[in-house]
Specification:
Elements (H helix, E strand, L loop, with lengths): L1 H9 L15 H13 L3 H15 L5 H15 L3 H14 L4 H13 L3 H14 L4 H13 L3 H14 L18
Helix pairs in contact: 2-3, 4-5, 4-6, 5-6, 6-7, 6-8, 7-8, 8-9
Length: 179
């Protein structure tokens, strides 16, 4: 009987591995975004963008960092399905970590599964509203879905935070124009 109770306790959610809260970088993220708006060139903007990425990819713990790094390496290596699976594990483990959703959205986007990408980007932006890369990715995803007017609004919002984004070239004066 004691054995059954012990096994039951070990299998309970109390002993399940849980993801801690992601590091709170909101203040520094806001500062960098403010600096981006004032930056004087692409070189300066690139340094600031790299700082944003360093904060966004600062995972909540070692397990989450391993999953994120592995998923991103797989993405870079063109292993899109494998990357999606790895990033899916990250999202399951850390459901309140924006970058897990952003990277999984990128994997979906590259597989042209724009509907799935949009769901993940919406969640990433719910967690981190000024995630400029997720905003730009959302604009590109809306374009992939043929929702040009919404895409223009999203791209303009992203470029308002980072005027040096490459996606600024996709902004048109006529929101009804397909890109």
């Amino acid at each position: 009987m004691r054995y059954i109770v012990l096994v039951g306790l070990l299998a309970s959610p109390v002993f399940a591995e849980t993801c801690p809260d992601a590091p709170d970088h909101r203040v520094r993220l806001g500062e960098i975004v403010a600096e981006l708006k004032l930056s004087r060139g692409t070189g300066e903007a690139r340094v600031l963008s790299d700082q944003l990425w360093a904060l966004w990819t600062d995972a909540p713990d070692a397990k989450a960092q391993r999953l994120l790094d592995s998923g991103m390496r797989q993405l870079a290596g063109g292993q899109l399905s494998r990357s999606y699976e790895t990033l899916d594990q990250l999202v399951d483990y850390c459901p309140n970590y924006a970058e897990g959703y952003n990277q999984r959205a990128f994997a979906s986007y590259l597989q042209q599964d724009f509907a799935a990408a949009l769901i993940d980007l919406d969640r990433a932006l719910e967690i981190t509203p000024n995630h400029v890369a997720a905003m730009a990715g959302r604009g590109l995803t809306l374009m992939g879905l043929g929702r040009s007017e919404e895409a223009q609004v999203q791209l303009k919002a992203a470029v308002a935070l980072n005027p040096w984004l490459n996606e600024r070239a996709l902004i048109t004066d006529d929101p009804g124009t397909d890109i």
